[in-house]
Amino acid sequence: MNNLAGKQSSGNSDSTPNKSGPRPERSPTSAPGVRAIVLVGFMGAGKTSVGKALGRRLGWPFEDLDDRIQARMGQTIEQIFQNRGESDFRRAETAALRELFNEPGPWPRVVALGGGAFVRSANTAVVKKAQAHTVFLGAGAQELFRRCQLEGVRRPLLRDLKQFRELYEQRRPYYLKAHLRIETSGKDVAAIAAEVACSLGIS
Ligand code: S3P
Q1: Nearest C-alpha to atom 4 of ligand 1 is from which residue?
Q2: Which of 26, 55, 145, 159 is in Cβ range 3.0-4.6 Å of 62 for a Cys bridge?
């Protein structure tokens, strides 16, 4: 899979599908002073696909924060929203993020946040304290909506285009606080990963 519209819900055999994938096999690219690259952006931005490609490219482990939340709670994101509600999900998200950045290693890593994580000050404080490089993967709302529909991943906050666009507009100012903004429209996953690495001077 090399384009952003082609992401499928990846499945392990257990009930909590894992988006992070296997650890990289190559030796890590050194980037003194860089603890992590954190990918932020709305649903459909390609945070998971680009994060995996970037992790492979740099030889750094990739982690999707949603996977950690699912593992901690023993439920899928959809089940957490359904059974416990969004506020419990958000609490779990912050706890998972803190846990992740408190781990002793291995570092550096590539980390993908869920679309709502970077708009909460508790979370941005964790990322800031960790001195991670933050990257906003951007695209137009209609394009993001189209990708989400093609992906076949069930997202609790994905309803219709109007609601999707409004939520994106609300969140965009927060995403724009990332250190770097990369436009993803019309680019394939490998090219975006290369652009992130080169823009950060790590390649
Ligand atoms: C959410 C986005 C999802 C997931 C959860 C909430 C959001 O992640 O964290 O469904 O608030 O936008 P993706 O951005 O990877 O779809």
Answers
A1: 114
A2: 55
